[in-house]
Amino acid sequence: MTEISASLVKELREKSGAGMMDCKKALTETKGDMDAAVDYLRKKGLASAAKKSGRAAAEGLIGVASLGNTAVAIELNAETDFVARNEFFQKYLAQISDVALKNKIETVEALKAANLNGKTAEATLTDLIANIGENMTLRRMQRLVVNQGVVATYVHNSLVPNCGKIGVLVALESAGAADKLLALGRQIAMHIAATRPESLDIASLSKDIIARERSVYADKAKQSGKPAEIVEKMVEGSLRKFYEQVVLLEQTFVIDGESKISAVLEKAAKDIGAPVKIAGFIRYELGEGVEKKADDFASEVAKMAAG
Predict the structure, then answer these.
(1) How far apart are CA 100 and CA 114, in angstroms?
(2) Is-contact 60 75, C-beta < 8 A?
(3) 233 lies in a domain?
């Protein structure tokens, strides 16, 4: 039997866009002949995704799944919103979300290799690409766990349950009643969806971001011509306002429009009968950081003009 190296499998995968196991099988069947292996995959319909792999996939859905003190958020991209509305696309996202949750998967790489109805999740996605005819990408995922408490979820602009354009997970650490914690967590998740906080607290906010903002405020304050001690107070005041915009615990709760999130937690602790702490949160917005290539944009414009 021909020995197939991992580097050879990787090379074929990059050329064909097919799944890892399919590439290994193709190379085994063709005794390591790269060109023959590509033809083998094409004949099987497994390389049809290759031509699509370079196209930008910035549409799609965010999926969430939760069970008690654990939850996952996954972004599955497609080229068009039309495909995001496809029931097979939605079913695939729901299935991999469930697999990730039940198997405690924490990385995209591990999720791609996970078993899904007898195939890897990656191979199943390759089949889906071939059947639907659009490039799709399993872009990112995260898992959030809390030792005692709940992880609440919220999906904004949902097309189907637990699948939408923005997905949020919030871990609440508390010995309080789970149902009350979930209700509170959902409200805070809705708040996070709306306000896009950069960090949970001031201490965890990027030092580079703080330094940049401080520099900007200092330059502006110096232009006032006021004494150095007044300038410093002006800078600190501007930073406090900045924290109220980007730090979750410093933000004003969108539900009541007046309380800080930190105060909301204190009040909830009295109602629930136990301290409540936000142990962490995840906010995924569809297509964050994905830029369409110029030729993709030009192609779309041309299609619109022709149609």
Answers:
(1) 8
(2) yes
(3) no
Our measurement of the distance from residue 73's CA atom to the centroid of its chain's CA atoms, rounded to an integer in Å, reads 6
Residues 20 and 25: their CA atoms lie apart, in Å, by 9
Domain holding 157, by residue range, is 59-198+279-301
How many C-beta atoms lie closer than 10 Å to residue 287's C-beta? Answer: 17
- How far, in Å, CA of 120 to CA of 108, rounded? 12
Mean pLDDT (whole number) for 93-120: 96
Model pTM score: 0.75
* 294 & 169 share domain: yes
Domain membership of residue 136 (yes or no) is yes
Report yes or no on 207 lying in a domain: no
DSSP string, 108-128: HHHHHHSEETTEEHHHHHHHH
Q: With 70 as the cut, is the pLDDT of residue 54 above it?
A: no
Question: Which structure tokens are listed for 174?
Answer: 């508390």
Task: Dig out the tokens for 44 from the structure.
Answer: 């099987």
Residue 304 has pLDDT above 50, yes or no: no
CATH code of 42's domain: 1.10.8.10
Average pLDDT, the chain: 87
**For residue 148, which amino acid is it?**
Q
Residue 97 pLDDT: 97
Domain count, the chain: 2
Distance CA 66, CA 89 (A): 20
Give Cα separations from 212 to 195, 196, 250, 289 (angstroms): 21, 19, 19, 21
